[in-house]
Specification:
The complex is a heterotrimer of chains A (331), B (330) and C (390). Chain A is of the alpha/beta class and 331 residues long. Chain A is built from 13 helices and twelve strands. Chain A has a single domain (6-95, 175-264, 272-324), classed as P-loop containing nucleotide triphosphate hydrolases (Rossmann fold), CATH 3.40.50.300. Chain A has helices spanning 50-57, 85-91, 103-106, 113-124, 129-142, 148-153, 161-173, 191-208, 219-225, 243-248, 253-260, 301-304, 321-325, and strands at residues 6-18, 23-35, 39-43, 66-75, 78-79, 96-99, 179-183, 211-216, 228-233, 236-242, 310-311, 317-318. Chain A is globular and about 70 Å long. Chain B has helices at 3-6, 61-68, 91-98, 118-129, 134-147, 164-176, 194-211, 222-228, 246-251, 256-264, 325-329, and strands at 10-25, 30-46, 50-54, 76-81, 84-85, 101-104, 182-186, 214-219, 231-236, 239-245, 314-317, 320-322. Chain B has 330 residues and is of the alpha/beta class. The chains are: A alpha/beta (331), B alpha/beta (330), C mainly alpha (390). Chains in contact: A-B, A-C, B-C. Chains A and B meet through helix 7, helix 8, helix 9, helix 10 and helix 11 of A and helix 7, helix 8, helix 9 and helix 10 of B.
Amino acid sequence: MTDNNILLSVQDLKVYFRSADACARAVDGVSFDVRKKETVCIVGESGCGKTVSALSILGLVATPPGEIIDGRIVFAGQNLLELGEKEMQKIRGNHIAMVFQEPLTSLNPVFTIEDQISEAVRIHKKVETESLHEKCIQLLKDVGISDPEQRLEDYPHQLSGGQRQRVMIAMALACDPDLIIADEPTTALDVTVQAQILELFGAIQTKQSMSIVYITHDLGVVAAIADRVYVMYAGMITEQGNAEHIFRNARHPYTQGLLASLPSLSKRGKRLYSIPGAVPDPAYKPAGCPFHPRCPHKAPSCHTEYPNMCDYGQGHLARCPILFQDKGRHI
Amino acid sequence: MNSKNRNNPIILCVKDLKKHFPIRRGFLQKISGWVKAVDGVSFEIERGKTMGLVGESGCGKTTVARLILKLLALDEGKIIYQGVDIGRLSEKEMKPHRKEMQIVFQDPFGSLNPRMTVGQSVEEGLRILGIKNRRMRKARLEKLMEMVGMSPDSTDRYPHEFSGGQRQRIGIARALSVEPSLIICDEPISALDVSIQAQIINLLKDLQDRLGLSYLFISHDLNVVGYLCNTIAVMYMGQIMEYASAEDIFDHPHHPYTRSLLAAIPDSGPQKKLAPTLIKEDIFDSSAALEGCKYRSMCSMEAPRCGKEQVLFEKIGEGHFVRCWKAMKK
Amino acid sequence: MTLNETPVAKNFHVQEPLAPKRTRMEEFWRLFRQNRLAIMGLFIFILFFCCAITGLFLTWGSKPVFDPSLVRLEEKLRPPFSKPNLDLLEPDQVPTLNFYLMGTDDLGRDVFSRMLQGAWVSLTVGFVAVGISVLIGIFMGGIAGYFGQHYFKIDQILWTLFLVSGTGLIFLGVTRLGTALLLLCLAYIVYAVLTRHRFREKATPKRRSMFHINAVSVDTLIMRIVDIMLCFPSFFLILTVVAILPASIYNIMIVIGLTSWMGTTRFVRAEFLSLREQDFVAAAKALGIGNLRIIFRHMMPNSVAPVLVSATIGIASAILTEAGLSFLGFGVPPPHATWGNILSDGKNFIFDAPWLTFIPGITILIVVLSFNLFGEGLRDVLNPKLRERH
């Protein structure tokens, strides 16, 4: 794991949202790396800060309520947090592209598909009009849309949800970015369509050797596509490692709890494990370890000390000193 | 409701349910076609058991729920609840039957009246039961709240003060307030966080064990349905494509659509490669008039015969029905 | 097992801590406080309210504290803050406070007292007129929104027409034809009631008779009535009606109320249309709650927000209308003072006694402005998008 292999490095990012009453610590010291040609999944429930982390990479967090307190985001040797708006615009879409969750609202309803795809290309690359059209058709073919000629002239409302998401991916690919950030791109889609989109991501990655940061709450999706996984809870990373490590040998009570609470046919007849309580409000987090009120392994020290990452080797880290001391314990 | 009906093992029997919405075009609003939201749905639910209704968006499962509850008028078919054909009843005659079937909705944010306290929302049901005494109502209310895992002093708060999971519990309390025998759960956990989903699933199961409830569990998530349900019906474009016990659906799926749904589940075990041949690209298809099998355009096993004739819902094994002539042939 | 028999599970699930309890009023006040103009509007509104109430008592009766109708021709057109000429006045004609706070008009009447008396009129007209229009609006809007898709059948339209024309003809003296129509109508109603059960069977019957062809929906009917009412230039309509009817404050209030319910209807209907699709309404129906209770107990409280906003702004508008009517001479009859009256009296003396136009004019301006600001502040606060969880 040499330094040149790391494409994006987020170091100790802190993003807080201040309102009249309170300060919501949405992202509270998050660090993760993305290497070249790998798929990194960031998993967590609503309110854990995964979307805010992703948006901060591209500088898309609204700065009046939000504020980046601390941290560095290093991409190709530059700290993105220090760049001005103009320099960021050169990176957005060009080197780092983003695919959003809602294909319905991410596409502009009054422009044709061709207009929208070519806009990204036109801004970043100097391409003539004829080859622009050809490039659009090629992009649509790359994302698996049949009859691309006709689709280019359609408006978003004439396409299905899956097709719209493919168009979004085509727009993201338009300038051959080095990194794609996908924020829950299949949550709003049917499961069969989701399967196709996941396959598409896999195919693109192999063909164009780019990295993908995939944000989701669905552990099944993570199992299907991830190389490495980061599990987030209440604004911090609780566990990280290879997909194998996380699924076969989870070392943090939260990850263990999540995996145990997934229903499946094989668990029929047995009571499903459920993590008691609920995700804390980002403005009112418990002292010490944010997860400790819900944790079956909690000890007195969990209330007072903020836990540090414990290394289990081979890149597998978990933020729970209690389980680290007692390596055999599992739910 | 005589005692004979209470012992009827089949609590709900739906036969050939149809609901067509007209498409009106032109200046004079002439009917140019029909959207066949529900096109011949039949199933049975046994007392005390859970039936899962699985399908993707637009297949008509929510419409079926509303038809059973008579929130929508049905066009054809029968709905037989505990031996009584409620499909033909007028609104007035339906009133005493209404408290027997209740519904829990998907969206915890829209399912509670924002201007009524939580206690008032749940108490509306107690009024229907005719409990006049205020103290008795209050006692019942507190008991209901405790049953769903909420503290009794949350009754004078407003819905916006609660989280999604808590609101869903309140919705369940409201459904229970009239002491129903059947509860229709319309995607009750889809909008909740993963860790809360397990809590609500456990709650539903516990309530079923304690109160002897029957459930019609509507969902698009096969994992949840596989865990919770006794029988599963797979729905596509207004028709049931396959119906069997939960184990049979997972172990011996016969219909190509069921197979594609199962193959599409991203597995939370070791990484599994999807079988690409089972799924074709989805195309936006607004034409509702399709002869023959409705799944034809997406089916990997499509043959010319599929477009020519109506496909019947036939028995392929013990308690296992499928709507595919090719599957029947094998 | 029924609910009564089941044992209650102790510690069923771990309780999530609830946020500190804030009632709706506290929440509302917290948001409202942030809009300074709205606070100013509210303050002036309360001030106006108090002035009107006290004004009523101070100018009531034959020997009031402040006498608005006492004529002192010697003291006419005196400027504000001027002292009375004590030699020319009887002792009981001397104004309270020993000076004319706002001067006198052309009949020597104390303008301040008249303003106080007029405040009460404006208040009453504003609130009662808006009250009437809101009641009608809520009713019409609620019916249109909730029952909108119910259709009147052709036969129902026909017999209503027969009924109306029959009654009309009797009134006009054509008794025989009129009674014939009414009897026909009655016979038809009896027939329809007796054979009702036969036509209740199918939603889409085979033989489409007069009983089933949809003529017009409730929604269309009510909305077209609204459109027709909106076509009338309302001020002139009010003017006409007031000119025909005997002049009295009550007639004015009722007429203004009857001609300004249209906006409220539209708001309420729009809210109802969107509320009808909400799950909690479906849940209420599934519980078996009757339609009327659903409309008034479940849906109405949710539609109140735009109505409140339009009501506050409507009060301002009603005050302006009343002032306009009085200015033209069609308002409350003299000697009762209203702000419009004072303006009207003063229009002949704009250069000699400008205070007679400026004082009522600026007061109307401030009151109307404050109502508008308060209404805007309310609208911002009641906007559900700003409602946060905890």
